[in-house]
Amino acid sequence: MRGAPVTSARARRPTMNNHPEPPTHLSASAVEWWCAVMRDYTLEPHHLRLLQAACEAWDRMGQARDALAAHGGLTFTDERGTIRAHPAVAMERDARVAFARLVRELDLDAGAPSEAPRPPALTSNRREKHAN
Questions:
Q1: Beta strands in the chain (DSSP E)
Q2: How big is the CA angle at 97 (ends 93 and 99), to the nearest 5 degrees?
């Protein structure tokens, strides 16, 4: 249609100075986060793949949450009358875990070191083997 505004994914993405653009398949919130990470952190080329995976995990988590909302609950009743967890519950959980691990791997979750000393390590509760 002539004169219609361009609404492609590429057109709505923010431009970044000397930073790789986010992948075009990411949601608006993932693109926003990508841009913030690129602005605030120095990443090596191999980190960009981890950042992309984290953004994709974030999007997958949202898709699973939307599927649960559309379905109307966390469970469904199968053909035998058994109540089962909706498959999107596991998808959301797995994406959440993946996102948290990728953020940790990228070291984006590290804050300032704590002033308080760490508590002592717990000793093992295993019994020592005695030589007979």
A1: 75-77, 83-85
A2: 115
Q: Rounded CA gap, 1 and 114, in Å?
A: 58
Does 14 map to a domain?
no
Give the domain range for residue 101.
20-105
**Strand (E) or helix (H) holding 45:** helix 45-71
Backbone angles phi, psi at 76, to 5 degrees: -145, 160
Can you give the pTM of this predicted structure? 0.69
Q: pLDDT tens, 49-100?
A: 999 999 999 999 999 999 999 988 899 999 999 999 999 999 999 999 999 9
Q: Flag whether 10 is in a domain.
A: no
Q: How many domains does the chain have?
A: 1
Among residues 2, 35, 32, 30, which one has the least CA distance to residue 17? 35
Q: Is residue 83, in this structure, part of any structural domain at all?
A: yes
